[in-house]
# Entry
Amino acid sequence: MGSWIWLITSILISIASLWVFICAIKGKWFQPIIKLTDTRAGVTYTNEVFDFPLLISKAVIISFILFIISFCFRQYSINKNLQVINGQRKNAIDSYVLFEASAESENAAKNVLLMQLAKSIYQMTLTGVLSGKQAEVSNNQLLELTRVFQTAEKN
# Structure
């Protein structure tokens, strides 16, 4: 549910920013050129000078708006990824009960089933929502711990 909030927020901020940019261009807000006039001996001289502080402030405002938009879209991607992963984990836990009942009293089968359940729950899964670089975190420590405990139980 949280991913949709970020998506709607991202779209609304993008539309509002686009509307402000269009109004700024059509209304000629923040003109970067200042016309300086000087009258000497009855002759008027006009110079056009760039207003660098205004240009810098426009660049900062535009950069901030783009940062906010990218932040909102990134939060949507992260929340959507977590939603998919949590759904997969819920399905794995729900199906474990069925598989455990079908394994009857075989301890070896139940141990293998429990290992696969732990692997499917705690191992990092790629959902395709995040790029590979963002999802490179690995959670193999818990799987290694369960293997150590299983070998210790056998001995």
Summary: Residues 2-154 form one domain. The CA atoms of residues 39 and 45 lie 6 Å apart.
